[in-house]
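Dear colleague,

Thank you for sharing your sequence with our group. We've completed the structure prediction you requested, and as agreed, I am returning the results in plain text so they can be pasted directly into your records. Please verify that the sequence below matches your submission; if there's any discrepancy, let me know and we will rerun it promptly.
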Amino acid sequence: MFAAAHAAQMRGDFAAAARGYRGLVRSKPFAANHNLGTVLGASGDLEGAEAAYRAALVADPKAATSRHALSMLLLAQGRYAEAWPEWEARRGVADLQIPAPDLRTPEWRGEDLAGKRLLVFGEQGLGDKIMLARYFAPLKAAGAEVVFACPPILHRLMRRLGVEPAGPEATEASVAADLWTLQGTLPVRFATTLETLPPPADFGLPLGSGGGVGVVPRGSTVHKNDAERSLGPRHAKRLLALGRDLRPEASGAEDFEATAEIVAGLDLVISVDTSVVHLAASMGKPTWVLLPARDTDWRWLRGREDSPWYPSARLFRQRAAGDWDPVLRRIEAALANHPPDR
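Please find the predicted structure tokens below.
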């Protein structure tokens, strides 16, 4: 019975999967409730998903997967004060590959940073690293010297923030520091709410205009939700007809600094939910984001066309999973009504 419910979940028949899991919550209280939370959340029933995850945690209070899933559900609703403590459970979710530094250097837990050298380990996707780079300014304002362990493709860009980049596998032998922290833990340490979000990282690039539109139709195929967030060939061709392809293989950009220099001269960026969105919106460039209906990332909240994370962003949401045609029609109409200079 569990196998049948899981098979329905895998083929996207969430109604059948939910019925199956509900029938199993007594015999398999953890697994059935956790999976029920997953399918209800993907279906948009956030209240039901929260109840299911909390029931799973009654069955197994230490389950990192359920705590992390609950945190993302709360974050998607803007309930940040409740969410961040649960968000720390991501460290125990193997699939996320969160860094687990084995250092004698102590982890920073909110103590005074004046005169301290803080090693920040980047985590998750490139877009996450750019989005959370906004916390480097308050760290520096608190007196810290910041070293950021991240992929080389980000190094030149991050130097613009006055931080010292290091390789992603930084160790005590390669980087001297007084304290370390995970980048994803910074919102926890700063007790971030929707009202206290730091502004996006200011990379200091002068912005121009007259360069027209830049577009990104697809993200990385290794992203867990790429099948939902990226455009298929037909829709990608339609988006690419609207402007310049900003993917590195098309633009020739060797790193994010080079992409940022291209973006600086554009009038508008239109992209699926990928790292270029975070770069362009951090720069203050008008950025239109195509969002899937299913498993929409928590940072875009729900039911909004704007983003508290990025004042220059405008969100174009699918109304039905997999149906990009209405989204592209709305984008094409918006461009026709307010065309950028080309």
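Summary note from our side: The chain has a mean pLDDT of 95.

Kind regards,
the structure core
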